[in-house]
Amino acid sequence: MLVKYPEFRILLVIMRALSRWDDHKTNARIVINVLHGHIQFHTPNGTFDVRPGQLLALDPGIVHSVDAPEESAFLLTLSDPR
User: Fold this and answer.
1) Across-strand partners of 39?
2) Do 34 and 51 form a contact (C-beta atoms < 8 A)?
3) 7-59 tens-digit pLDDT
4) Does pTM surpass 0.85?
C-alpha cells in the first residue's frame, strides 16, 4: 500500500509470470497503470492487454480477472467516494 485514505488507495502490485487473479469485483472505481511487463485484464466486455505506460479504468461493480503472462508490476488505484 503506497497511499491510503478512506476514499482513495494506491497499491503497488507485483505478479509472477503466469499468475492469475480469479474473477472478483469491487465497489470502487479502479485505474491500472502498468510499470513493467504486461497484464491481461478480462471483463465481460472483452480482454485488454495493458502494457507499460498505458492506463485502464474500470467502473465500480464490474467483474474482472487478471492474468500476468510475464512478471509484471502495476499501480492499482481505487477510488470509492463513499
Assistant:
1) 50
2) yes
3) 999 999 999 999 999 999 999 999 999 999 999 999 999 999 999 999 999 99
4) yes
Task: Tell me the C-alpha distance between 51 and 35, whole Å.
Answer: 8
Nine-digit cell string for 10: 494506491
Q: Which amino acid is residue 34, in one-letter code?
A: V
In degrees to the nearest 10, what's the CA dihedral of 67, 7, 59, 51?
Answer: -40
Q: What is the pLDDT of residue 80?
A: 84
Which domains does the chain show, CATH number per domain? 3-79 (2.60.120.10)
